[in-house]
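Working notes for the structural subgroup meeting. M.R. asked for a predicted model of this chain before we commit to crystallization trials. I am recording the input and output together here so anyone reviewing the notebook later can reproduce the run.

Input as submitted:
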Amino acid sequence: MRKTIDVSGVGRDSARIYRVTEMPALKGELWAIRILKGLQLQGMDIPDFHKVPSAKLVEIGIIAVMGLPAEEMEVVLTEMLSCVTIVLPDGTIRAKLADDFEEWPTLLKLREEVIKLQLSFFLEN
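Returned structure, recorded in token form:
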């Protein structure tokens, strides 16, 4: 079963609960390859992820995404948000809508959580 975490929004989004779900293995692998490509494009060494603290993994992931060409970056960012759904007050889940985000820091927070969740298996050993 894929892992999930619930995350509250920031600022005007603070009353919303977002559910982040781990990507399926095949999709996650392609996503990770794109991230690694971003590191290579920037001339960065690919770290031994097993030895990197989770906060540093998030930083490395963000740096990698930002190093991708614009069209590839958009694909990766869209894939990250494909992991997000909305938890309604009654506990039911629905697909997200564009209006579910009023603060860009909420998007950044969700993207950080996606990176942590996707790379969590490195931290479990």
